[in-house]
Amino acid sequence: MTGHSDETTSDETTSSPGTDPKAADDWRGLGDLISLATERLTTLTEDMHQAIAERWFGLIGPRAAPLRRAYQASTARIYESVRTSGAALGSAVGWGAEAAGGKNGPRPLWRSSLGSGIQATANAVWGDEFERRRSNLRIELGLRDAAGELIGQDPYTLSGAFSMPTARLVVLLHGLGETEQCWQGQAGADSLGDLLATDSFTPLLVRYNTGRHVSDNGVALAALLEGITEGWPVAVEEVALLGHSMGGLVARSSIYAGREAGHRWTGMVRHLITLGSPHLGAPLEKGANLISRSLGLVPVTRPLGEFLDHRSAGIKDLRFGAIREDDWNRTDNGALPGDIVGDAPLPVGIEQHFVAGVITAEPTHPVGVLVGDLIVRTDSGTGRGRRRHVEATDIRVVGGRRHPDLPHDPAVHAQIREWLSAKTGDHPG
Question: How far is residue 52 from each of residues 25, 57, 403, measured CA to CA in Å?
């Protein structure tokens, strides 16, 4: 399967002869991670240190002013030296990888399943910051092959990558901190993509930076699908979007972004399916926001609250299920307002199918309804809230499932295939 190198290569410096550009990029990305982690952790420690010291100096009173100034200056120099050392080490990692080069040089870090998982996790936590810094660690949204290599969207590359293209496309979108590997079959079972291929669909695996705003990924996905459908080897008749967890929000976001941009591919979409997507928000993010705000109320714990508040924009979008820019840009994304995400009517001509899981065998058991699949509650996964409602054509709640189980579950696979094989009808928006 043919693949193109990641867009991050456009930002790389000139490599020495024999250097593997992918390896150099990866190691520079590791250096960026070292630098950012050192910066964030050192700042946390310094601020905690200063907050505790201020408390003791405050007990002494004005007489401690000269000692306070000297103490602050000396500790500031120490922590700044640690930050500088971390930045220098990060730069040295990248430079060293490039200088090594040749056949015996370092190998790419993020191309294996383990490596890509580490990169995806780092992007989930700080992906928006990597994006701002144009770091080589950032993940660019793009189409991937089974080995995780990026595939270009020009007709020649698509023809080489998909030897038996069909007129029906199904786009598979992973969740927070995941990659397209989340769709692989387990214990020798067929993957969902393989099963859908037998139903005349061509599965398209997309990887994206889950630390970015959902709305930013939606815009990028819309542009990608416009390019793919224009360059596809055969005329496209139908497009289906299938997302796990955050991927379902990105799928919904791309529909709105594509229609706003006048993209033609949105007129080909017949089905949108989500598995365990927090349409109304995720309790863990709501809890993280509450904890970070609460820690900020006390000077000694305020640095911990600020550290926690540095989690990515993508994670913060999960608080209420924000899928459009207007859902988050009217307020401080770390504040404690009520749910300001607007209602999302069913897109005209598209059937939305929501699957939610519960840990109890009986889907209606009170415990299952309360905790859902341990990540997303049932009301959020089905879009049925007391204040807000995300309209769906079909809803399926499956019992005895945890959040990570849904992309691999045979019953879920059967339900998806049934929905996609049915003839779509017209549903009012």
Answer: 41, 9, 40
